Every structure is written in structure tokens, then in C-alpha cells.
Amino acid sequence: MGKFLKRTVHTVFLMLGNSCNMNCRYCLQHPLVTAQLPSKINPEIYDFLKDCAKELTEGQKLHIQFYGGEPLLYFDAIREITERTHAYCWHSVITNGKAVTKEMVAFFNAYKMPVTISWDGRNVIETRGYDVFADKEKRKLLLEIEQLGLSAVLSSKAYPLDILEDFQAISDDYYKIHGYQVGTNIDEIFNTGDLPEELLAVDYPRVESEMLGLGKFYLEKRLNGSRTELKDYTKLSYVDRLFGMLKRFYADGDGRFHKHYCSCGNGYDVLNLDLEGNLYPCHNTSSKIGTITDDYFTYLNKVLCSDNTKVNMSVCSDCPAIAFCRGGCKLVNAEARREGYCRLKQAVFFFFFFVFEEYSRWMVGVVYGGYLFSILFNFK
């Protein structure tokens, strides 16, 4: 018998601490974090991480995602852990960027570390209270990061087209420096307990209209075979990702969601680990469910008990958004789902079924395209 919990994982969220230098209005941790995380590194976690890496296919490295709170407030821990594990791990960090320094940028670039900045675009002051790109010196520093990404939260203050246009403005400046674009991501806001109703009051028809427009724009650009212009990069890459999700669900799969556990993998092939060696069902909670030395089946039973995905499947299996959300977040309760979580997912994703039918016809022919279209609309 080995010393540590037996598992096969590809990602470990390393939970560095709960402290943050901002107070974002939509932070989903506010109602979920009830206790401070330990700040002292238990040396055993290095043995555990190495053990996890050995389980992977030869040539693969374990992914360590540094997480907070605000992870840059724990930069000393980031540096130590990266230096001690880089031989068998690769590392990334999601940050608000406010605490970044030249020393940090040099470190990130030296280790080829992807750094994603949480930023909502033109109305970011209303959602996050601070605009990291408004400060010229800070903006210049962030643009020096060699693997930079941007991530926004879609809410009543940030709609898809505005977000993508503002991402593009950052990406244009980044391209002038590096010769390639920034990575981008958009998440949909959701309520884990006490989010402001104002932020949750999304204009669903506006979202639907903008997403349909993005789909048509994508088809126009892709079907005529034109080369992607720099000014269109963020829009097209965003839709590319959505079509990739559809392809994996319908072409690579059978168009049904069969899992009875959360699609994010949290607690399963994604572990959430604090510096002391405690494990959590999600990196956004304070509820411990085990340690790195636990018996696997004891640990797994606790993870399954915290996961409501199977309960939701009676509703989710008939929803047209299932191809994208895959049952959604296990932290969102039934009431929050009814009050807007599911409606927003549908507003974002539903109209892609229309454009996917056209795209599938172009890609694989009218018959197969029509077949895919009929599968998609079996959802009533």
C-alpha cells in the first residue's frame, strides 16, 4: 500500500489562502468561505504531487493551478512550489493582477507560466471596483507577460459583445509586442448565496441577440474561407471554443450527457488541495472532505455526497444547453438554478444550435448536417 490517496488526476488546484486585495461584487466565494486556509507548506505535499505526476502518461506533466483568494498575495509560496516541482509539473495562475510586480512577470516568463487576468471590460469598476488596465504602468507590465489570458464574467454589467470588443483592444496592443494574441474566456455569472440582485438581472433577449449575431458572424467568416483578421480574433476564437464543445458532445459523443458527477471534475480527476494537505470538493469552499493520506473510497464517497449533478439530471437531460454546461456547477442549488442560472445558460448557448446546423452542412454535407440538426432539436 502506498502512503497517499490513490487517484488519477490531471490538475491540482493549489489553494494558497483566502486573502484578497479586492472585493468583487460577484465573488462566489463570499458565502462559501467560512474558515481561513493554512498558510504553512506541509513538505508532504511535494511527495504527493510527485506521486500524482507518476500516474500520468509518460511525457505528461501534472498541472498545478495556483488559486486564492488572490494568489499573488502568496507569491513566495508560488515561487517555492514552482521551483521545487517544475521538473514534473507545469503551473498557471488566475489573478486580478493588482499586486503584480516586475519580479513576478520575470518569474512567470522564466517558467513559461500562463497568467490569466480576471477583467470584465468597460464596466469593470461596477463589478470589481478596480480596473487593472486603467493604470498605464500596470497595463504595460501586464502586457509583458508572455502567456497572458483574459477572463470575464458575463453579468448585467458585462455583455458578450462589449467583453469581446474590450478584450480585442487589449489583444491588439499585446500583439504589437509579442506577435500573437491573448487567450480569452467568458464565464456566466451564477449565485452561490448572496450575490447582488442587480448583477443577476441580465437582459436575456440582449444576450440571445448578441450570441446569434456572433454565430452568424462566425459562419460568414468561416464559410467563405477568409483569413482571420486581427480585429476579429477574439470573436472568432470565442465561437471556435463553443463549436469545439458541440463537436465533442455530438460528433465525438452520442449527444447525451451520461455522467452522474460534475463535468468540471472537481474532487475526481481535478483535486483541490491546500498547503497543509487537506482536500476539498471545490477550490471555492472551506469544507474539507479529506486529506492526501486518506483511503480513496472514504474520500470518494464524501465527494459524491457533495455532488448534486445526478439529482439535476432529470431536468438537465432535456435542456438544449446541456451540450455546453454539462449539468452545470455543483455549488449552485436548485433555487438558484430556477431563478436564473439555467435561463442564462440557455440564452448564451441556445442559438448556436441554429448556426451549428449551417456549419455542419458546410463541413460534412447536407445529409449528415441535417442529421445533426435533428439530434439537436430532439430536446423539447
Give the percentage of residues in beta strands: 5-15%
Strand neighbour order, sheet with most strands: 6-5-4-3-2-1-7-8-9
SS summary, helix count? 15
Question: Whole-number radius of gyration?
Answer: 21 Å
Give the integer mean of the pLDDT values: 88
Helix/strand/pairing class, anyone?
alpha/beta
Written description of the protein model:
This protein has helices spanning 44-54, 75-85, 102-110, 124-128, 136-142, 160-178, 197-200, 204-223, 233-251, 296-305, 309-316, 322-325, 334-349, 352-364, 366-376; strands at 11-15, 62-67, 89-95, 115-118, 148-154, 183-188, 270-274, 278-280, 290-291. Helix content is 44%, strand content 12%. The protein has a 9-stranded mixed beta sheet. Helix 6 (160-178) crosses helix 9, helix 8 (204-223) crosses helix 9 (233-251) and helix 8 packs parallel to helix 13. The longest helix has 20 residues, at 204-223. It is built from 15 helices and 9 strands. The relative contact order is 0.13. The protein is of the alpha/beta class and 380 residues long. The N and C termini lie far apart (50 Å).
Name the descriptors.
single chain, 380 residues, alpha/beta, 15 helices, disordered C terminus
Short description:
Helices cover 44% and strands 12% of the residues. It is an alpha/beta fold. Helix 8 crosses helix 9, helix 8 (204-223) packs parallel to helix 13 and helix 8 packs parallel to helix 14 (352-364).
